[in-house]
Every structure is written in C-alpha cells, then in structure tokens.
Amino acid sequence: MPYYAAAGVWLLYALLFPLYRPAHFLIVAFASAAVFLVMRAVCGTVTEQVPDKPAQPETTGNAELDKMIREGAAAIEQMKRLNASIQDPKLSAEIDRLEDVCGKIFDRVKEDPSRLPQIRKFMDYYLPTTIKILGAYERMGAQGVSGENISSTMTRVENMMGTIVGAFEKQLDALFGAEAMDISTDITVLENLMQREGLVTDELHESVSGGTATATAAEGDIKLEL
Known about the structure:
single chain; mainly alpha; Single alpha-helices involved in coiled-coils or other helix-helix interfaces; elongated
C-alpha cells in the first residue's frame, strides 16, 4: 500500500498541476515520499512466510523396493517409539537389537533388490506381528495393574522376544547365503589352482581345505512361532 500511495501522488499531481519543470518534479517527489512514510507507519510491514517444500521421499525407480524402504523406515520408527515407553531393561535391549537387525536387512535388500522375494513374508507377517505384540505389551504395561491376563501375556512376550531376535538374525544371515556360496566356491577353485601350480604345500592345502566351511544358501523363509 505505501508504494501504491506514493505512485498515486505522482498520477494525481500530473492531473491537477503542471509537471514540466525540475521544481515540479522536486515538489511531487517530496510529496510522494511523505505519503509513503505516512502509509508505511499506518499499514506497518507484513511478512509472509512461504512454507518450505516438503522433502521428496527417496525413490529408486523400483516400486516394490520403494515400498519396502517406506514400510521398513516406518516399522523401525514404531519400534523406537514403543521402546521409549517400555521400562523392562532386558526387553528394551532386545528391541534395540531388533532395530539394528531390521536396519541391516533393509540395507542388504537395497544393495541387492533381487533379495526382495526372500523377505516378503518377513515384511508381510513377521515384522508387523512383532510390532503388534510389542504394542500390546506397551498398552498392558501402562495399565498399572498386575491381573492374571495382563501379567501372563507380558511374561509370554518377554520370554518370546529372544526367539524373535534369533529369527530376525537368521533372516539377515539368509540374505547372505548366495554370496557365501559364491565365496566358498571361489576359495575352493583358488585352492585347487594354487595346488596344481605348486604354490602351496600339501600340508597347507590340507589345512586350508579342512578349515573351509561349506556355505548353504538359505533362500527360504524364516520360521517363527508367534
């Protein structure tokens, strides 16, 4: 408004008074400046805040992988929230371990999206069911009573968490099954080649061969009784 008012002074002056000498321009300039200051004092200064554009979610171009990333991040965030309100130190430590293992599972699949089918049941059942169990534990613990139903259910959850952690760790281990098999094969070929070329002694060859583990690719789903 102050700018519009100052501009209006020039228009009004040009319509009513002569505007062809330097003195005329000085007069209207002073008049418009005065009107500008008055209007600015009356109207004040308006500051408009433009909200920042929301951060675009990370995309990989693979719809199924993007879905896993979103759901995985949401699941870990939910576990963190539940863990913050669960008071049992042992259970809290096991939830910390679950968060860590889940993060490594998701990182592994992001590195190798061909592993997505291998964690489908993990994502569709094991992970959401585990969060559901932890949510029930948190709600029951917040009641402040020790009735038979509440106490027995919370005890079962506490006893079950170690099994769940172990199952999640096996799921992570299974994601490295094919890679372990490839490495084992490479080691065997390398040993045999060095043996044929006479680059290792028989004793060393036997020692290395005896210590070579046969990797089995655990491509199936983990089994967890809930």
